[in-house]
Specification:
The protein has 204 residues and is mostly beta strands. The chain has no helices and 17 strands.
């Protein structure tokens, strides 16, 4: 890409569960439920983790056509990203229209992290749902894998909105993946005009 594009990190229908009576109202009758991870993939560090696999190729729907009804012929090569709950707690992470709230960033020529994607928030409350991460579960999602003339490091930035129904506690914070090697075009660092709905997943 030679421009900054809208981020989209959709979860597969294999994670979608109907008849949600656990948390959400009848207006949102479904939710996404993460799958148990195997012993081989368990890791020692605790917390909610974003693990990119740039070497794993997946087909990704091109953002320009992601609202188009005919999506089958609008696919490009991307990469796999795994989100893991490596804790003993159940985490209920907000999503928007079935997409996790996440963008990619890259280090610019001055070594500073800059967004190379932007996020558009929905004005409709019904767009927001829940992704249930039981202890030691994960979800795999496809992500864009950019290529350009500037070799650099990239990372994922996620707006982590977790709800604890047991304690009626709400938490919001920004989390990041480990950096990985890649390339982008210089033009992707150009900032776009933001508004109350369009931005870079600022913390608040």
């Amino acid at each position: 890409s030679e421009i900054k594009v809208e981020a989209s990190y959709y979860m597969s229908k294999e994670y979608y569960e109907l008849n949600d009576s656990l948390f959400y109202s009848i207006l949102t009758p479904g939710y996404y439920l993460a799958k148990p991870i195997s012993e081989k993939t368990k890791i020692d560090s605790a917390g909610f983790l974003i693990k990119p696999f740039p070497e794993n190729t997946l087909l990704v729907r091109h953002s320009r056509y992601r609202h188009n009804g005919n999506q089958s012929n609008r696919l490009i090569q991307g990469m796999k990203v795994t989100l893991i709950n490596n804790t003993f707690d159940t985490l209920i992470v907000r999503n928007q229209d079935g997409s996790l709230m996440m963008i990619q960033e890259a280090k610019d020529p001055n070594g500073k992290w800059q967004p190379i994607e932007y996020w558009i928030s929905s004005w409709c409350g019904n767009a927001y749902g829940g992704t249930f991460f039981l202890p030691f579960t994960s979800i795999e999602i496809p992500a864009f894998r950019y290529k350009g003339t500037f070799n650099t490091q990239l990372r994922f930035k996620m707006k982590f909105c977790n709800e604890y129904p047991k304690y009626t506690k709400y938490e919001m914070k920004i989390i990041y993946s480990e950096p990985f090697e890649g390339s982008v075009n210089y033009s992707q660092f150009h900032k776009i005009e933001t508004d109350p709905y369009k931005g870079y997943l600022e913390q608040y």
